[in-house]
Amino acid sequence: MVSARNVNDQNLIETTCKNTPDYNLCTAIIRADPKSAAAELQDLGLIVVAAIKKRTQQVMATIDSLTKTSPKNLLPPLKQCRKYYNAVLVGNIPVAEQTVWGNPKFAETAMADTKNEAEWCEEQFQGVAPSPLTADNKYVADAAAVARGIIRNLL
Length: 155
Known about the structure:
mainly alpha; 6 helices; about 0% strand
């Protein structure tokens, strides 16, 4: 039996994700979190921020591993990417987590910067070698755009 609350929650997810640049990614991230069933709009944004945080932590581990095994020509772009993703992890994510409920403009700006950081990482490999982080960079950039879209509904 579907309760009125569940229908309303699903409508919130649907409506919210339609206002983002990637409906499918938005719904996939949000529905993967069991807390989304009873989430408010701010919580939906935080679910996406949490997914970005998790992927960013994975990217940092991947970069650390690649730094030990990659050819020397990949070391400068990997080092720069580590700086970009560190800024996401220690700067942007905490700002978004702490301000989505209070001052969502700061959270929106943090997600815009997160998207930029992922795109800048990808650019580091141009003319050097194929990027080993393309899928991760795309996911983080796209998820940050989704989070930003959700947060804009709070402004």
